[in-house]
Design a protein that fits this description.
By secondary structure, the chain is α/β, with parallel strands linked by helices. The protein contains eleven helices and 14 strands. The strands form three sheets. It has a seven-stranded mixed β-sheet. A five-stranded mixed β-sheet has the order 10-11-12-13-14, with no helix packed on it. It binds zinc ion (ZN).
Length: 317
């Protein structure tokens, strides 16, 4: 496979991972790559995608089809969302939520600032929801940020899109008869990732610190690192049991065993890439040594491929 093909597959994998490309369209388009940022393509594709609704447990639902995984918690006081997807999905997300409850959306929690999780902030806030996030999510959303690996510069978000309840280490919210627990990871996928735990249902949303069965993206331009990703995985393992339902940022809802495999993969790739770099290999020589080979079949077919992930890790070790 030549370099160009590898790159294309990597991008297609990313697009599939955010839930907008189905197997039916995967072979399609040249046009998919005509635009030079996957952000624009993802937004265009999200406009066409439908939103699926999966009932988990304890009145918590998973919505997929607009970027990152969205959790919806329904109860007597109203709706709480974890992440709000991409703005173009507004009508479909609103319709999916109406199918769960006609009560208003009271709260929206952002797991981090990325557009495929937080671009819905503005419209959801305008329906009356209060936005809760880590303080760095507010900082990042309010700033102009270039993410080089996406070849895209995000302008500052409008004021209505900014969280108004922010915290540094942890935050608890009593709502619908339970106490929802939010916890900051320290820099991992970005510098603003948090987990959201629903104790009654024993469901943990871990945002983009976990991509179930995919190599994860690490956003170096907003503070992400491989070591932070490993630490975040260790934290996720420390607070879950075999019974916990774990919602990743991308991919299917999973369990602790799958999360454990993901953590072990991160550690193994970090060790291999670190040893090659220490040995004096250049980035390309490290990629050519295929340090992810043992994991590509499981993690590299669908999202970032092994070469792309190797480069992300190489930059950090
Ligand atoms: Zn992200």
């Amino acid at each position: 496979m030549n370099k160009e093909q590898t790159n294309k597959i990597s991008r297609v994998g990313f697009l599939r991972s955010v839930g907008i490309i189905t197997a039916g369209t995967i072979l399609m388009p040249r046009s998919l790559f005509a635009q030079n940022s996957p952000v624009i393509t993802i937004k265009n594709e999200a406009a066409k995608a439908s939103i699926s609704v999966q009932s988990l447990r304890g009145n918590i639902y998973l919505l997929q089809g607009s970027g990152g995984n969205i959790a919806v918690f329904n109860g007597p006081e109203g709706i709480l969302m974890v992440d709000g997807g991409i703005a173009v999905s507004r009508k479909k997300i609103a319709a999916a939520i109406k199918g769960i409850s006609t009560k208003p959306i009271k709260y929206l929690i952002n797991t981090h600032w990325h557009f495929d999780h937080a671009e819905g902030n503005e419209w959801i806030h305008k329906t009356g929801a209060t936005i809760i996030a880590h303080e760095n999510t507010k900082k990042n959303l309010g700033s102009k940020i270039t993410v080089k690996d996406w070849n895209y510069t995000f302008p500052p978000a409008p004021k209505e899109a900014l969280p108004t309840i922010i915290f540094r280490d942890e935050h608890k919210l009593k709502f619908n008869g339970t106490e929802i627990q939010m916890k900051y990871y320290k820099p991992s996928h970005t510098d603003c990732d948090i987990s959201v735990y629903f104790p009654g249902a024993d469901i943990l949303h871990v945002g983009d610190t976990w991509w179930n069965a995919h190599y994860p993206f690490i956003d170096h331009d907003s503070g992400g690192t491989i070591d932070g990703m490993i630490e975040a995985s260790n934290y996720n393992l420390s607070v879950t049991t075999d019974k916990t339902m774990i919602i990743p940022g991308h991919g299917a809802v999973g369990n602790r065993n799958q999360l454990l495999q993901f953590r072990d993969m991160l550690v193994a790739v970090r060790e291999k890439v670190g040893a090659l770099k220490k040995d004096g290999r250049t980035m390309q020589e490290t990629v050519d040594a295929k340090p992810t080979a043992a994991f590509d079949a499981q993690y590299g077919n669908f999202v970032l491929n092994g070469a792309f992930f190797t480069k992300l890790v190489y930059a950090d070790v």
